[in-house]
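pinging the channel bc i need a second pair of eyes. not urgent but kinda urgent?? the chain im working w is below, pasted from the shared doc
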Amino acid sequence: MEHESGAVSRAKASLIFSMLMFGTIGIFVRYIPLPSSVIALSRGLIGTAFLAVVILKKGPGISWGAIKRNLRNLCLSGAFIGINWILLFESYHYTTVATATLCYYMAPVFVTLSAPFMFKERLTQKKIFCITGALVGMVLVSGIWNTGISGTGELWGVFYGIGAAVFYASVILLNKKIQGISAYDKTMMQLAASSIVLLPYTVLTEKVSVLSLTPMAVILLAVVGILHTGISYTLYFGSMKNLEAQTIAIFSYIDPIVAILLSALFLKEPFGIRGIAGAIMVLGAALISELPDKS
């Protein structure tokens, strides 16, 4: 029991760290002079290469047997990561970042509602209360309260954002089904699959000159590929086997809150009283969800 408790604590720490890293990526990406789809493809390729080197250096190498046993779910979840990114990029083209973010972070709601059917996790009143509080908090943080939704283009942005949320939720749920494989092997295969999905999309939609990259942009791209993708996704996916899907869902809200707080702090983007209240609601919901129930 003590061993299980320690594993859960480590898994939560890994999940929180990965969410914090995901929340900081926007600051780095802002200074990389490349389209978002090219950055995403680079993330996948650099992350895959980094993890392959780590696995080969660490010891026994890539566990092809474990990969083969989980191949279907690995490829499917990796492809879903790529599709998730593509739909999110399309959402940004049609609507505001605030609206796209709000739609995208419907994913934890989908996970929470699916978990009782897929994993027999009990949907308690406390979990329902916390996920509702986190969702209301995201509405306040996003600023959509003030901007609203107008026009057909905006609706397409909403549909793309919700589509991205569906695939994000599917990635979380599928990762709960992947067993008997190291976090390194799992993440490497998923990032490779996401790169395969992103490659044709990027080639068809973007025209980029490598010569336009500055040395600083190359360094930032490497940081995004290694730290924000290779390392953070390894911790993220590695934490899932020891945590309930509902816990992962609620803690996922740490990512956008950190992103918005940092954008207000470093990029001087507006963040009013409603945003502060929303951030407190989201983080409070994550904390309350993990408090032990009374016996």
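so Residues 9 and 295 are 21 Å apart (CA to CA). and The longest helix spans residues 2-29. — does that match what u expected or am i reading it wrong
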